[in-house]
Amino acid sequence: MKIFLIFFLISLNITNVFANINTTARQAILIDANSGKVLFQKNSDQKISPASMTKIMTTIVAFDLIKRNEISIDENFIVSNKAWRMSKSGYSSMFILPNDKISVKDLLKGIIIVSGNDACIVLAEGIAGTEKAFADLMNEKAIEIGLKNTNFTNSSGIYDGNNFSTVSDIAKMSLYMINNYPDLYKIYSEKNFTWERTGGDPIKQGNRNVLLYRNIGADGVKTGHLSDSGYSLAATTKINERRIISVISGTNSSAERTRESLKLINYAKIRFELFKIPKEINAKIKTWNLSQPFVTANLQKDVFVSIPKRKKDKIKINIKINEPIKKPVLKNEIIGKANIYFENNLIKSVNLISSSSLEKSNFFKRFMNSISFFVWG
Question: Which of 87, 152, 262, 303 would be a feasible disulfide site paired with 277, CB 3.0-4.6 Å?
Answer without folding.
Answer: 303
